[in-house]
Design a protein that fits this description.
The protein contains no helices and 11 strands. The protein is mainly β and 117 residues long. It is globular. The chain starts with a strand and ends with a strand.
């Protein structure tokens, strides 16, 4: 059974930082392209960042320079370090795992990030 379990969300003031984690089980983690997505109220889910098994990253323009995706293939864990948070970063953040050739795509249950004073 595949599980992606996010943690680390919460309430933070503008300018603050948070670190999200995603623990994966039931997949060969190193074979998957991992990603973070977010969905704000009333908006569509959007890409935040992706990271390949080798560590190559891709970011949405809105988070470049503020968010950093990382992964530990030995511990089957994905991370998202977020700094200089803004109110517009408020959303539910989802972990995603996508196999590049086997058409397998998995999602976590999401973790809420709220940026507010």
């Amino acid at each position: 059974q595949v599980q992606l379990v996010e943690s680390g969300g919460g309430l933070v003031q503008p300018g603050g930082s948070l670190r999200l984690s995603c623990a994966a089980s039931g997949i060969i983690f190193r074979s998957y392209i991992m990603g973070w997505y977010r969905q704000a109220p009333g908006k569509q889910r959007e890409l935040v960042a992706t990271i390949t098994s080798g560590g190559s990253t891709n970011y949405a323009d809105s988070v470049k320079g503020r968010f950093t995706a990382a992964r530990d293939n030995a511990k089957n864990t994905l991370f998202l370090q977020m700094i200089s948070l803004k109110p517009e970063d408020t959303a539910v953040y989802y972990c995603n795992g996508r196999h590049p050739t086997l058409a397998r795509d998995y999602w976590g249950q999401g973790t809420q990030v709220t940026v507010s004073s």
